[in-house]
Amino acid sequence: MSSTYTNEIDNIDSWLTNNTSNYIRQSVITLLRHYWADNPEEFDENDSDTLTTKQLSFGRRAFFAGAWHHDWLIKQEIFHREKRVKRSATLWLIRLLHKIKLIPVIMWKTRNEILHSTTNNHTTEAQHSELNTIIEHIFSQKPHSRTMSHCDNAYFTKHSVDKVKQMKLWRKTAWITGANLIIHKYEQISTEQSVRFLSFFQWDDGG
């Protein structure tokens, strides 16, 4: 189970690398590792100006329940301004909290797979093989990176084809669902743009 928690922290770390400053990323990861460790790291209580110590004053339950210090939003807004991107710091925090709240859910599902898995090995291999073919097709058909938003593009660049293929069945299926939604969204945009383009050149030739 500890490896599952570590993997999820690594996934959040990768997401933070693309979506926030190094200071905020390190602060979040430090807190995640702190609350998981058997012997938590000691922090300087007099150093009250850091995001880490401010959040620690709220306690463990508040951290995982989503009660975060307001300074997180202030720091993230500064990051957006420095990067000159029009994004919502609140939306960024909501997405981060969602990822953190998923950790125990994923750990529970992993535990259940280990304890209660009754799926035949041959059936499992066949399912993986079928999904792997779909994954290869998705990567070959995904929109060009220049046409996608940063967040949508990161969905494909965060994991290589081989890494997605190594996921567990339920997680692999979830990834495929998310990827198809992104592809469908850009297919709709492309279709709408084509319709507008054609309608621009249409004219009434009936006199």
- The string of secondary-structure elements, in order, is HHHHHHHHHH
Please report the number of helical segments. 10
Measured distance between first and last alpha carbons: 75 Å
Largest sheet: none
Radius of gyration: 22 Å
Structural class: mainly alpha
Give start-end ranges of low-pLDDT stretches: 203-207
- Give the averaged pLDDT, no decimals: 80
What do you see in this structure?
- This protein has 207 residues and is mainly alpha-helical.
- It has helices at 2-19, 22-36, 51-56, 60-65, 71-83, 89-116, 121-141, 150-157, 161-165, 169-201.
- 74% of the residues lie in helices and 0% in strands.
- The longest helix has 33 residues, at 169-201.
The gist of it:
The chain is an all-alpha fold and 207 residues long. The chain has helices at residues 2-19, 22-36, 51-56, 60-65, 71-83, 89-116, 121-141, 150-157, 161-165, 169-201. α1 (2-19) packs antiparallel against α2.
Topology, please?
Layout: H1 2-19, H2 22-36, H3 51-56, H4 60-65, H5 71-83, H6 89-116, H7 121-141, H8 150-157, H9 161-165, H10 169-201
Question: Which labels suit this protein?
Answer:
single chain; 10 helices; 0% strand; mainly alpha; 207 residues
